Queue: 3 jobs
Job 1
Amino acid sequence: MSSSARLFQCLGCQRQVIICRQCDRGQSYCAQGCAQQARRASLRQAGRRYQQSFQGRLNHALRQRRYRQKQNQAKEIVTHHTSKQPQVISCYSPGQNSSEKAVTATVKHCHFCGEVVSGWLRLDFLQGTPVRNLHH
């Protein structure tokens, strides 16, 4: 028995994403890293706002002062750095023929847990389910 699922468009990469009822927590981003990128951007913005505040400027100046003192205590002159060899990652996955691709294209899976879901997809959240307020 396949479970109910929701279809939404990721706010980061604009891909269509299917999420099963068990994984659905109101996500707006796909499982491919868009949520982490949005979180990093949000933290950078918060850091910029903090740096513009009076307390943020004082703390930054103190941190820089400690850093410069630490650098003066342990001076090590390095003239050459070794370069690392670039790592090559292959995206080719052999072993999947065209008939396997045709079969998997008709079956829908949750992009988060991989569970097979119903062919009928919701475009909105389930009605009547309580939304947790995380700002307590």
Note: The radius of gyration is 24 Å.
Job 2
Amino acid sequence: MLTRWDPWREMEGLQRGINRLFDESSSARTQGQEGAAGAMWAPAVNTYEDKDAFLLSCDLPGMDQKDVKLNLDNNMLTISGTRKLEHEDKRENYQRVECFFGTFSRSFTLPATVDAAKIDASMENGVLTIRLPKQEESKPKQIAIKVK
């Protein structure tokens, strides 16, 4: 028996599969669990280097510093914490949560030039700033050239 090929019917199945994948991934991230796509919530971190230090800026909106931990072990800096779901907007079988919440952890291998004893961290308006000063001997030095 011959069957007529309908490309639109195949597209509907593909679209359902893509929608399911996005739904599962989104649900796993908002619950702070690893999902089918392997996604997990992690805050955005910007890194910057100047002549005196490395700077890390971590976006943690809505979090208090008591909910964030910094750990340094064998030149590995780990930022971890938990963001709790504070508010749910529910209306007749409708729920919408777009902000990520749950436990997170980010780790960074620090260069040997960082002076671990002088690391400084502060948090203001949901932004964690970590200053990683360079050791004195690792800072670039200007050498004057003498004319003979």
Note: The longest strand covers residues 76-83.
Job 3
Amino acid sequence: MATSRVGRKPVAVPKDVNVTIQGHDIHIKGPNGQMSISLHRAVLAQVEEGSVKFRPNSDAGYCRSGSGLKLNKSIVATERAKFANNVKGITDGFERKLTLVGVGFRAQVKGSELNLTVGYSHPVVIKAPAGVVIETPSQTEILVKGTDKHLVGHIASMIRNVRPPELYKGKGIRYANEIIVLKETKKK
């Protein structure tokens, strides 16, 4: 059975990472911790020579032609990408950087809580979940680090949504590489 271009590429596993497969569960252990993911029942994985290969499970009961084949290809590619992200997170980790733009805007970390002063009458407190570390190198920079790509992105998005950048002056919390196109004000 054919797979997509992304799904047929094997995922290289570094030497300091240990991967074990038990049925549809994959356990990954490395220098930054350990993770486990559950594969979709239409996907099979196997460890071969320092890499993990993914292929469709022909016994899963999905169609082998037409739209069912396209669905199988997309599921295999998605599961492969999730596994590759977990391996990268276990070895290198993920990081999102945010900046605060505005007069008096500042961020401060106390323990696992981020205190934001962004123009409201009260400070906004965001608690970091397990597996995510929030750092503030300066009062206007925030670093969100962790091994789970989805969780790091979610927490960074929550921080940004406290005060998204407004379109006329650009004040607010934005990603470090985000480009804000400012609107022109009304003129008489």
Note: The longest strand covers residues 94-101.
